[in-house]
Amino acid sequence: MRKLTFFRISLLVCAVASALSVSAAPIELKSEGTFEPNGLGATITESVTSQTGGYGPLSSLVMNIDISDILLGVLSGTANGTGTYTGGGGTLTFELVFSSYQTSGQNPGDTDTAGGSWTATGGTGTYFNATGSGEFTTLFTHTGGATERTATTLSGEIQAVPEPATMAALGLGAAAMMRRRKRA
Hints:
This protein is α+β, with helices and mostly antiparallel strands. Helices cover 26% and strands 51% of the residues. The chain has an eight-stranded antiparallel β-barrel.
């Protein structure tokens, strides 16, 4: 009877560990920094001011977004970009699609708002092979110079893909317990 109880508890722990290892976690990152045009594109460099959720610390760190063709975005309403949040927990890389753009003018103090969707393309550390998606908004404040102030909010869900070794170890452990149970 004791062996059967141990076996059931072990299988339950194995099943819960497997389910938790692939569960999606909400994430919200807020950052502030600067926007600088570079040819046909632009670069946004920001420091993370707050992080909610995710799989490891990215706060107090750096976010970089490279927009491939800002002029196309202004003219057509859609622009593409890539981004990276880097921190103590690793890096999270993602692709962006800017699909909305609103402007209040080009004078100092005027603001533009751009937004769209993001899709995780991987990462390192606790974000290794991460998948996920969500929405983002970037607020641009005109300064009258070549560089503008920015504030970005990125939110959505992220899912860490478990390493194959972890899943293999769980499978071998479950197989060993089943074999042990058959002997008993």
